[in-house]
Specification:
By secondary structure, the protein is α/β, with parallel strands linked by helices. The chain has helices at residues 16-27, 39-49, 61-75, 102-127, 148-151, 157-177, 195-198, 202-210, 221-233; strands at 7-11, 31-36, 52-55, 78-83, 94-95, 98-99, 139-144, 182-189, 241-244. The chain has 9 helices and 9 strands. The strands form 2 sheets. Strands 3-2-1-4-7-8-9 form a 7-stranded parallel sheet, sandwiched between helices. β1 (7-11), α1 and β2 (31-36) form a beta-alpha-beta unit. This is 3-hydroxy-2-methylbutyryl-CoA dehydrogenase.
């Protein structure tokens, strides 16, 4: 799929991996709508890349519908969706203060897994009605999982299970949407430079980076965005979850 001139949606586009992806898509010629729970962050990125910002809670159906409608009115039917919105709280199932509240677990699932599904299904419903491109494609979806989906650490039970759900969604959605010319892939990043990690002391960041076999550093959001662009451009990539992690395998803690 040739990105130039196409409409794109990026959830969680106001910071981190989503921000870098929004910038990369815009640089490649896409018309980008940035969906983010934080409207100020979304607007700041949108102004920089000449896109539009939409405040959105991905776990809420009506909120997603309103955001996608606004994006469509501005840019036309979206052909590219990149789901980066997510939360990553750390909490043991049984901690010193007792068992994890069910609502805490539920919130992670609602944002990371249900939110991904919510935006994906509404994007696909619109894309299936669009005219096929010269390649036969109507759309491309890139979801975000995590290496924690495969070897989550202690304290990551909610996060790891939500991301494992995203991995499981990938092949089923790709198979279902194949007849409509919509591809679905997922990226499972390792330890990346995000706002959360940048808030750690430099020695802590260096230690995390050194745990990566090669290159022994934190991943850069631009490297995530580069893979997104490759997935969009490579028609044969479909139904696959790609680890982007420098060969790291997470230890139990």
């Amino acid at each position: 799929m040739d990105i130039k001139g196409l409409a794109a949606i990026v959830t969680g586009g106001g910071s981190g991996l989503g921000e870098a992806t929004s910038e990369a898509l815009a640089a490649a010629g896409a018309k980008v709508a940035i969906l983010d729970f934080n409207p100020e962050a979304a607007r700041a990125v949108a102004e920089r890349i000449n896109g539009i910002a939409c405040q959105c809670d991905v776990s809420d159906e009506a909120s997603v519908t309103a955001a996608l409608t606004a994006a469509s009115e501005a840019h036309g039917t979206a052909r590219i969706l990149v789901n980066c919105a997510g939360v990553a709280p750390a909490q043991k199932i049984l901690g010193r203060d007792g068992a994890m509240p069910l609502d805490a677990y539920r919130r992670v699932i609602e944002v990371n897994l249900i939110g991904t599904f919510n935006v994906l299904k509404q994007f696909a419903a619109a894309a299936t009605t669009a005219e096929a491109l010269s390649t036969g494609e109507r759309g491309v979806v890139v979801n975000t999982a995590s290496v924690a989906a495969y070897e989550g650490q202690i304290g990551q039970s909610a996060y790891a299970s939500s991301k494992a759900g995203v991995v499981g969604l990938t092949i089923t959605a790709a198979r279902e949407f194949a007849r409509d010319g919509i591809r679905v892939c997922t990226i499972a990043p390792g330890i990346f430079e995000t706002a959360m990690l940048k808030g750690l002391p430099q020695p802590a960041q260096d230690s995390l980076g050194q745990s990566v076999p090669f290159p022994s550093r934190l991943g850069r959001p631009a490297e995530f965005a580069s893979l997104v662009l490759h997935i969009v451009g490579n028609e044969m990539l479909n139904g696959e979850t790609i680890r982007l992690d420098g060969a790291i395998r997470l230890a139990p803690r």
